[in-house]
Amino acid sequence: MRASCLTFVLAAALAGPLLHGCSSTTSAGAVGADRSQLLLVSSQQLNQTAARQYSQLTAKAAQQGALDQDPAQTARVKRIAARLIPQTTVFRPDARNWNWEVHTLSSKEVNAWCMPGGKIAVYTGLIQKIDPTDDELAAVMGHEIAHALREHSRERVSQQLATSAVVGIGAAALGLGRVGADLGSALATVTYGLPNSREHEREADRIGVELAARAGYDPRAAITLWQKMAAAGGSGTPELLSTHPAPASRIEDLKVYSAKVMPLYEQAKKGAAPGS
Fold first, then answer.
1. Average pLDDT, the chain
2. CA geometry: angle at 102 spanning 98 and 107, to 5°?
């Protein structure tokens, strides 16, 4: 279900100090990403939880020999991230203060994600199976960064907490201690488990093409990327594709919004250093 501001009012009695309400977390940018969101959990609290989970995940990957194992792949991913991240301030000036981290994880999965607060992971399966150009890889990473900028995880966790609060509105047992204890589990669920809504995916696509364009990557590469993703499905759908809208509707939307940000791309290319 999609939680509304009415649900927010109903949940207020149980959310207590965690309550933040309905607001938009980003500036609209050229693509017009501006929508009221239900946000019950503080951004700081969720970012701290994400940082702990990311640290645990990367430490485990390092122990298993699965962290940044290919220096060339890792350097490539970090180079692209270094061009995308400065563009995030167009949507969120505070993103410049995030403790950004970027790693590659050895896995056959065709996947990538960005946790709250700028914790990025790109799976080697995506690079090996999709064989993306730099522009296409920037499209993937821009899309995932957009989820973090727009705080989709925070919104989805808030929706889960609001639903729980409404269901148990008369139960005093569902207090702040329970909410706090469940936050880490809820974040893990929305990051690795539940698919994003079409609305979240559409926003991430649109913000992602603008980030890529501003960084000097061809935004039209998002179109060829998702065509490759669909073709790579075969008998096993790529993890990224399994949680996203139908390829045809996504590609039509990307055509519209990549064209919209082409002037930003052209402007960025004019100012780019030779060979960049």
1. 78
2. 140
**HEC profile of the chain:** CCCCHHHHHHHHHHHHHHCCEEECCCCCCCCCCCCCEEECCCHHHHHHHHHHHHHHHHHHHHHCCCECCCHHHHHHHHHHHHHHHHHHHHCCHHHHHCCCEEEEECCCCCCEEEECCCEEEEEHHHHHHHCCCHHHHHHHHHHHHHHHHCCHHHHHHHHHHHHHHHHCCCCCCCCHHHHHHHHHHHHHHHHHHCCCCHHHHHHHHHHHHHHHHHCCCCCCHHHHHHHHHHHCCCCCCCHHHHCCCCHHHHHHHHHHHHHHCHHHHHHHHHCCCCCC
Query: What is the C-alpha separation between 145 and 147, in angstroms, rounded?
Result: 5
pLDDT in tens, 122-135: 999 999 999 999 99
- What is the reported pLDDT for 153? 74
Q: Structure tokens of 248?
A: 């045809």
Which phi and psi (to 5°) does residue 228 adopt? -65, -40
Predicted local distance difference test score (pLDDT) of residue 45: 81
List Cβ<8 Å contacts ≥24 apart for 96-103: 98/47, 99/51, 101/54, 101/58, 102/77, 102/78, 103/58, 103/61, 103/67, 103/68, 103/74
| Residues recognised as catalytic | 144
Specify the pLDDT at position 273: 44
**112-115 and 37-39 as β-strands: parallel, antiparallel, unpaired?**
unpaired
Please answer whether residues 103 and 58 qualify as being in contact, where contact means their C-beta atoms are separated by less than 8 angstroms.
yes
